[in-house]
Write a structure and sequence with these properties.
Low-confidence stretches of chain B: none
CATH class of the largest domain in chain B: Mainly Alpha
Strand content of chain B: under 5%
Number of strands of chain A: 3
CATH superfamily of the largest domain in chain A: MetI-like
Number of strands of chain B: 2
Strand order of the largest sheet of chain B: 1-2
Number of domains of chain B: 2
Number of domains of chain A: 3
Oligomer: heterodimer
Mean pLDDT of chain B: 86
CATH architecture of the largest domain in chain B: Orthogonal Bundle
Helix content of chain B: over 70%
Number of helices of chain A: 20
Strand order of the largest sheet of chain A: 2-1-3
Largest sheet of chain A: 3 strands, antiparallel
Order of helices and strands of chain B: HHHHHHHHHEEHHHHHHHHHH
CATH class of the largest domain in chain A: Mainly Alpha
CATH topology of the largest domain in chain A: MetI-like fold
Number of helices of chain B: 19
Helix content of chain A: 55-70%
Radius of gyration of chain B: 32 Å
Largest interface: A-B, 86 and 90 residues
CATH architecture of the largest domain in chain A: Orthogonal Bundle
Distance between the termini of chain A: 46 Å
Structural class of chain B: mainly alpha
CATH topology of the largest domain in chain B: MetI-like fold
């Protein structure tokens, strides 16, 4: 409290001798406090902006490498003696060969490639050499052979994923020093990878599979993708849009245009404002107890996630819709009533179309919130490991699926550090979706919103 | 007949009703739409509504209720001994349902024909192997009582579905006929249709109430189960949290509550000063250009999903605090800590505090500032002694809302705060060390309800009691905050 009142008498006494052009001590102090106060404000804004920048750069720098992946190109001889002993190309007999039967073919392919490039590394066993290829490769080869049984006996060029540790070597996660202490990778394997890279057989390139393929198990991070998660999130957004938009708009129209002032209306209003602030995890408990335990819907299904997110999004949509209905001037309603429309007609024919841009903006923002929501989905079982793509809707709504944010969480709980990179990559995709949705909302608002 | 086809057929009938109703109304007016009471399409919608609405309502009610009734009558036929073997009636019922589904699948795949499937007997055929062949999940061997119950289940379901189809179509046809019969040029079709729409609007608004009721009931129900298994006194007053699925768990809420409040306190200590100063600067000092850049930048923070903050805490802030502060000072060596979660949550709450306070500061009448300037106060003195005191109730409301957000936040604490409950018996020094991992109510709700859950054990059910406590606390804070904010707004309007 360094203001004039508290130091009144002394300040006035000094001032009598001072000049108007020279600041006295009190004024200086007051000005200094003014400057300090401004500096606090600027610092606060600076901290906020710096936090945003730190957050985004940290996620970007961790996640961008996830879109690149190291591949090894090999010529694999699809040995008839191993894959189709009887030679009759019977698909059922070919299917009996498990991925263990395919692994030696890949090792042979790698060996011949090493001979071709004159690579020999001391202390590197054949088994270790094969270890630089992802464990996913055998499955990839088997799927190819089952799809093209006629190729058995030929030599086909394949591009296999490199093991996650080899990939990490080119992304700076693994070094020669750390490899010595690591059970999963040896320095010799890294030397082999370097030699293959020099020979052009090993490349790091953009990896579409990260976006389109399903999740992979704990020990093959290189093959994990977010395809199922994107589909799951998409299905849930479809359900939310189809349910929340009509219900939200209908509820807002009633509350804003028709509801009489009584206890029932008050009850609804209080409920909506409270539901908007209920912690999201409580909605997860609701979903688990009502939709899964009582309603008998399957766990980890997009339908349950969609229903839970619909209930969560409704208050947001209702609040936005009511605001935009309120902003339509009463003269529009009066004019419609004046030419003989009923109240219902005036609302549906005139008020609602004029409020539509605001409603859509609110809906998109609500959807964006729902897209990033994690906690309630974890409770309804969406953290489960899902490898199979859900089928097309409507049956697909009942198939197990993952969701983008939950997939991120799932990956952060795994031991291999390569999954942290994947998680950050998935976050980047999520943020991209959110950015697009918010851009659409802003454009809609800029382009169509009317000021009365 | 599958539900989807029934729905489509009913809608088809409704559509026919639309055109017939419309034509009939026009016909009764001699083709002159001006003599009709309502516009022609209202007569069409009237017929559509009466055809579709009652039929679909009954269909929905039937589909919701019938499975329960079937379950009940099937479980009466299962002998006591079978239930005693499986220890739980609902488990037996689930097995029956799976067997029935597998039998249907077997018929659909042509493994057995309809007639034999009804007369299967476990002694003559290996039913278990047959059902496994369909690709269905059959966990244990199908015994004769189970098979019999499954047959009963199939028969009842089939009959119920048949009656459902018949009732639905009958209602649709009755509605159709009634609507067409009523249609006449003097009939007030618009009023009827508008009343129907009004009912839909009211139902849509009641979903908000239903949701609240659903939340409260689902948690109350399971919580009462929990308190049947575990003493409520120990839950609310117990100072130890150590769940053990083999039994003999100690499930005191106090350590979790302490973790929640401590992390929220740290978060508020970060968010409130930063958010408040940012709001003051933006609303009182900043020029339009700075405001146009800085305000959206800060508000972006509010649009970022919490999982992103969680990851940020996990991979950046956590290790940073551990390596730079906690380990050098010897205060802890876990990257999960109260500080990590609190700091990151504080960042998340900055836009929350700042945009609410911004609104409130802007609502303070300009005349009050002018009066203060007129007395010779500097800008900051005006803010400190006039604007802030006037805005104080609103700001307190904003802080309470932020606190309720912090208490209910899940992902940041799951990924940043750790899973170990505060050790309340280890002394004060242990529990107030902010570099120690500490868990919260929300983290425990997640951990008790994910993975394998058994809804008969107190270790799972405790999550509902925790959820209810969380709901009550946040609800209280919200109601209080909204009350304060509303009261304050009225003051200047």
């Amino acid at each position: 409290m360094t203001d004039a009142t508290s130091n009144g008498p002394t300040a006035r006494a000094k001032k009598e001798h001072g000049s108007l052009l020279v600041q006295d001590a009190l004024t200086k102090r007051r000005n200094a406090s003014e400057r300090r106060f401004r500096a606090y404000g600027l610092t606060a804004i600076g901290i906020g902006v710096a936090a945003l920048i730190l957050l985004l750069t940290s996620i970007l720098s961790q996640g961008l490498p996830a879109f690149q992946q190291t591949f090894v190109t090999l010529d694999v001889v699809l040995d008839e003696a191993k894959l189709d002993k009887k030679g009759n190309r019977n698909i059922d007999e070919i299917k009996k060969v498990t991925t263990f039967g395919y692994a030696p073919l890949i090792k042979n392919g790698l060996k011949s490639r090493m001979e071709e490039l004159n690579i020999s590394i001391d202390g590197l066993s054949d088994k270790d050499a094969g270890g630089i290829i992802s464990k996913e490769a055998a499955g990839q080869l088997r799927r190819y052979v089952i799809a093209n049984p006629d190729e058995i006996g030929n030599s086909v060029e394949f591009r296999f994923l490199a093991n996650g540790r080899i990939d990490g070597y080119y992304k700076g996660r693994v070094t020669m020093q750390s490899a010595e202490r690591d059970n999963n990778v040896s320095p010799q394997q890294l030397q082999l990878a370097d030699a293959l890279k020099d020979g052009g057989a090993l490349v790091t390139r953009f990896n579409w599979d990260f976006i389109t393929k399903a999740d992979a198990s704990e020990n093959r991070p290189e093959a994990a993708g977010i395809g199922v998660a994107i589909i799951g999130s998409l299905y849930m957004m479809m359900i939310v849009l189809v349910l929340a938009l009509p219900i939200g708009v209908a509820a807002s129209i009633y509350l804003e245009e028709f509801a009489p002032q009584n206890w029932f209306t008050d009850l609804i209003e209080v409920n909506i404002s409270n539901l908007a602030a209920v912690p999201s995890i409580v909605y997860g408990i609701l979903g688990l107890a009502i939709f899964i335990n009582y309603g008998g819907l399957p766990q980890s299904a997009p339908i349950v996630g969609g229903l839970v997110l619909t209930l969560m999004t409704l208050p947001t949509i209702i609040i936005a819709t009511r605001a935009s209905l309120k902003s339509v001037p009463p003269s529009i309603r009066a004019a419609a009533l004046g030419v003989g429309a009923s109240r219902m007609q005036s609302v549906f024919h005139h008020v609602l179309p004029l409020a539509m841009p605001g409603i859509l903006t609110g809906t998109i923002i609500g959807l964006a919130q729902a897209l990033g929501e994690t906690a309630p989905l974890m409770l309804i079982g969406m953290v489960a490991f899902v490898r199979d793509f859900p089928s097309a809707p409507p049956e697909g709504f009942f198939d197990p699926a993952s969701a983008l944010p939950v997939q991120v969480y799932n990956w952060t709980t795994r031991a291999d550090p390569a999954f942290v990179e994947r998680a950050s990559g998935a976050i980047i995709v999520l943020l991209m979706f959110l950015l697009c949705m918010n851009m659409i909302a802003i454009i809609l608002r800029r382009r169509f919103e009317r000021r009365w | 007949m599958p539900v989807l086809w029934i729905v489509l057929a009913v809608f088809g009938l409704g559509l026919i009703g639309y055109f017939v109703g419309r034509l009939r109304a026009l016909g009764s007016a001699g083709g002159d739409a001006r003599t009709l009471h309502s516009l022609p399409s209202y007569y069409g919608w009237h017929a559509f509504m009466l055809t579709v609405a009652p039929a679909l309502l009954v269909l929905a009610a039937w589909s919701l209720l019938a499975p329960n009734l079937i379950d009940r009558s099937v479980s009466e036929t299962i002998p006591e001994a079978t239930i005693a073997d499986a220890s739980n009636a609902s488990l037996v019922l689930a097995e029956v349902r799976r067997a029935a589904g597998a039998l249907d699948a077997a018929v659909a795949q042509g493994l057995v024909d309809q007639e034999t499937s009804r007369n299967l007997h476990t002694e003559s055929t290996d039913v278990t192997a047959l059902l496994k062949e369909t690709g269905s999940v059959i966990t244990s061997a199908v015994t004769q009582p189970i098979l019999q119950a499954a047959q009963e289940f199939r028969a009842l379901t089939k009959r119920s579905n048949l009656y459902r189809t018949i009732t639905t179509f009958a209602l649709a046809l009755i509605g159709f006929g009634f609507a067409i019969k009523r249609t006449h040029k003097d009939f007030r079709a618009r009023n009827v249709v508008e009343n129907g729409i009004m009912v839909i609007l009211v139902l849509a608004s009641s979903i908000a109430i239903l949701t609240t009721v659903g939340i409260v009931l689902s948690m109350l129900f399971e919580t009462s189960h929990f308190f049947g298994l575990y003493s409520w006194r120990e839950f609310f007053l117990g100072t130890k949290w150590s769940p053990d699925f083999r039994g003999d768990s100690q499930l005191g809420i106090l350590p979790l509550l302490w973790g929640t409040l401590y992390i929220s306190l740290v978060a508020l200590l970060v968010a409130v000063p930063i958010g408040l100063f940012a709001a003051i600067y933006l609303s009182e000092y900043a020029g339009p250009r700075l405001r146009a850049v800085a305000k959206p930048m800060i508000e972006i923070l509010a649009g970022i999903p919490t999982i992103v903050y969680g990851l940020f805490a996990l991979i950046t802030i956590g290790p940073m605090i551990r390596d730079w502060i906690a380990q050098p000072l010897g205060l802890g060596n876990s990257s999960n800590s109260v500080m990590t979660a609190g700091l990151v949550m504080g960042v998340m709450l900055i836009p929350f505090v700042s945009s609410l306070s911004d609104d409130i500061i802007n609502a303070v009448p300009q005349a009050m500032r002018d009066g203060s300037f007129g007395l010779g106060a500097t800008h900051s003195e005006t803010i400190k002694q006039v604007v802030l005191p006037a805005a104080l109730p609103g700001i307190v409301g904003a802080i309470l809302l932020a606190a309720s957000r912090a208490i209910g936040e899940t992902m940041i604490v799951v990924m940043g705060a750790g899973a170990a409950a505060a050790q309340m018996d280890q002394g004060l020094g242990e529990i107030i060390n902010p570099f120690q991992a500490m868990t919260t109510v929300t983290v425990k709700i997640v951990s008790q309800l994910t993975g394998d859950t058994d809804f008969a054990s107190p270790e799972t059910l405790v999550a509902f009691a925790l959820g209810l406590s969380l709901f009550v606390i946040t609800l209280g804070l919200n109601v209080l905050a909204l009350y304060i904010v509303r009261k304050y707004r009225e003051q200047y309007e």
